[in-house]
Write a structure and sequence with these properties.
- The protein has 1 helix and 20 strands.
- Strands 9, 10, 11, 12 and 13 form a 5-stranded antiparallel sheet that branches.
- Helix content is 5%, strand content 39%.
- With 336 residues, it is mainly beta.
- It has one helix at 5-22; strands at 44-52, 55-62, 71-77, 84-91, 103-110, 113-120, 131-137, 145-146, 166-169, 175-179, 186-190, 197-198, 207-208, 216-223, 226-233, 242-248, 257-262, 269-279, 286-294, 304-310.
- A hairpin with a 6-residue loop joins strand 18 (269-279) and strand 19 (286-294).
């Protein structure tokens, strides 16, 4: 019987099939996606990062000349890598007493509503209209409406300009607000619906908690029962803007400066400061969200928002953060 060369070749290949099919395969690996820094496009600063459910949110200042800072955008992500922009979640059209310099949003959910605290008008004296306002919305992306129709804080108390507010929920559910520029920081207690302030036990509405070298941009979180208070130092328009921190047993301090935790890297960026911290829910995992100035930029408003990992040593001290171009790897929030 004659057999063609074609049939022999086919027979030979078929005879090898079991060997090929059973041979060990190299595992398929994929590199994780990274956020990259800056993490969002455009000139933005003073970012507030927070988690609602399974979604990360960033609320920044629109970084432009004061008279153009008349609105705010927000950004949301499921994984820290892919971000959706939500435009003009609030503006001076709805905050009628504000005309410019809308700064440093602080956001928090309370009783099913979403609240956004902001500074406006960059007031230099109490006679001027402006200070810290509060707006409310039914969803994180707004639109936000003015809650009380006037500033929540218009006074200059203890030398603190009413800007750079951060709202903090304590373990017992009490809401405090830390705020202040011009090198002074106050803490106040908010009432239940955020329409006003409540006095402390001594009857006072304001308590100064200024740590050494404080300039502005306060932030607070709890870890292992300790209160971590953080703030920005240096000049916001210069390269040496930076973040320091203290650890205390109480939300009122005293706050003894521990160390600088975030600062410029001459090979990456300058002016790294005015930050916030995102904690993965129910995990000892933290990310620092901050603004910085690209090396090629010198204009004070040319600032971008970035994210890097924040870690702790065995004593609970915050390790110095390494600012990067890579950012952080993809991180979805499980079980939400």
């Amino acid at each position: 019987m004659k057999t063609s060369s074609h049939n022999i070749s086919l027979y030979f290949l078929l005879s090898l099939f079991p060997l090929i099919a059973c041979s060990p395969q190299e595992p398929i690996t994929t590199e994780p996606a990274y956020s990259g820094n800056p993490v969002i496009e455009g000139w933005y600063a003073d970012p507030e990062g927070i988690v609602y459910g399974d979604t990360y949110w960033i609320y920044p200042t629109y970084s432009d000349a004061y008279h153009r800072q008349v609105h705010m955008d927000a950004f949301s992500s499921k994984d820290l890598v892919n971000w959706e922009k939500h435009e003009r979640i609030i503006d001076t059209a709805v905050i009628t007493w504000a005309d410019s310099a809308m700064w440093a949003p602080s956001v928090i959910e309370n009783k099913g509503k979403y609240y956004l605290f902001f500074g406006a008008n960059d007031i230099q004296k109490e006679e001027a209209l402006g200070g810290i306002g509060v707006a409310v919305a039914d969803q994180p992306e707004g639109p936000f409406e003015d809650l009380i129709g006037k500033p929540l804080i218009n006074e200059i108390v203890n030398g603190a300009q009413p800007i750079d507010q951060f709202v903090f929920r304590d373990a017992d559910g009490t809401h405090y607000m830390y705020y202040g520029g011009w090198g002074h920081c106050n803490v106040v207690k908010l009432n239940e619906d955020f329409t006003g302030l409540e006095p402390f036990e001594d009857g006072e509405l304001y308590q100064e908690v200024t740590p050494k070298d404080y300039v502005e941009g306060p932030f607070m979180f709890i870890r292992d029962g300790k209160y971590y208070f953080m703030w920005s130092e240096g000049g916001w328009g210069g390269p040496n803007y930076r973040v320091a921190y203290a650890i205390a047993d109480s939300p009122f301090g005293p706050f003894e400066r521990e160390a600088t935790v975030l600062q410029q890297d001459p090979e990456v960026a300058t002016g790294a400061g005015h930050h916030s911290v995102i904690q993965i829910p129910d995990e000892d995992e933290y990310y620092i969200v901050y603004h910085r100035r690209p090396l090629e930029e010198t204009h004070h408003n040319h600032r971008v928002v970035c994210i890097d990992k924040m870690e702790f040593d065995e004593e609970g001290k915050i390790k110095p953060v390494r600012i990067t171009f890579e950012g952080v790897p993809e991180r979805k929030i499980a079980g939400k």
